[in-house]
Write a structure and sequence with these properties.
single chain; alpha+beta; Sortase, Chain: A; 2 helices; about 10% helix
Length: about 250
């Protein structure tokens, strides 16, 4: 427990220093924006299970990410592909054989809470922009659910994104990279239920090598992906060079 707290403290100190430097440089808020992440979400397609926008191969053959952030993790997307960076479309006729674990009925998410890092935020809808990239929240106090992904608790990977900082101040996912395996993520839903997930791993990837299939690809269970920016701040572009992704599975 002491090592975890020490590690989180060091990351928080480093991030705070970056925010301060960011402010001193006078760079705009887009420096930490999620809009800088590489690639685009998959095309919106429906699989035979009736869920829309999963993309990717229904067989989870991509190796699981390391439980410790790894910038060198493999990627399946390419910035040159029109749909690169966040997975592809599901093959025709693709279907899950037997979904694993508990599943929940479709219901829009309204709030996400991360007790382990003391963060919570209301959830807005994020859609696909004309350039085939996912929208991002326009402030640092809200998280966003990608509406072409499953709702949290449904079969497949639900996608929730938020800023790490906004206007040179810590935002919702400021400490996201400090989450640990087993920590809980609670997502409240419009139907009054709460989908509770447990973190399975945390990955950190260069934006140019975002692991599309690993993040957006189909899985045989109810899963959750939390996405934000991370890594070193590029002074020229005013943005972080990496993305941080928290992977989690539904537990109740």
């Amino acid at each position: 427990m002491t090592d975890d707290r020490t590690g989180r403290s060091r990351r928080l100190t480093a991030s705070a220093a970056a925010v301060m430097a960011f402010g001193l440089l006078g760079i705009g808020a887009t420096g930490y924006a999620l809009s800088q992440q590489a690639g685009a979400p998959p095309e919106v397609v429906a699989d035979q299970a009736g869920h829309v926008g999963h993309g990717g191969d229904p067989s989870p053959t991509t190796p699981a990410p390391s439980s410790t952030a790894s910038p060198s993790a493999s990627a399946s997307g390419s910035a040159q592909s029109p749909h690169a960076g966040h997975g592809g479309t599901a093959p025709a006729g693709a279907a899950y054989e037997t979904p694993k674990g508990t599943l929940m009925e479709r219901s829009r998410p309204t709030k996400v809470t991360l007790p382990g890092i003391g963060a919570s935020a209301p959830i807005i809808d994020l859609k696909l922009k004309s350039d085939k990239r996912m929208e991002v929240p326009d402030n640092g106090t809200e998280a966003g659910w990608f509406t072409s992904s499953p709702t949290p608790g449904e079969l497949g990977p639900a996608i929730i994104a938020a800023h790490v900082t906004h206007k040179s101040k810590p935002a919702v996912f400021f400490e996201l990279s400090g989450m640990r395996k087993g920590e809980k993520i609670e997502v409240e839903r419009e139907d009054g239920t709460t989908a509770t997930f447990a973190v399975t791993s945390v990955g950190q990837y260069p934006k140019a090598k975002f692991p599309s299939e690993q993040v957006y690809g189909s899985v045989d269970r109810a899963a959750l992906r939390l996405i934000t920016c991370g890594g070193v701040l590029d002074g020229e572009t005013g943005s972080h060079v990496d993305n941080v992704v928290v992977y989690a599975d539904l537990v109740s």
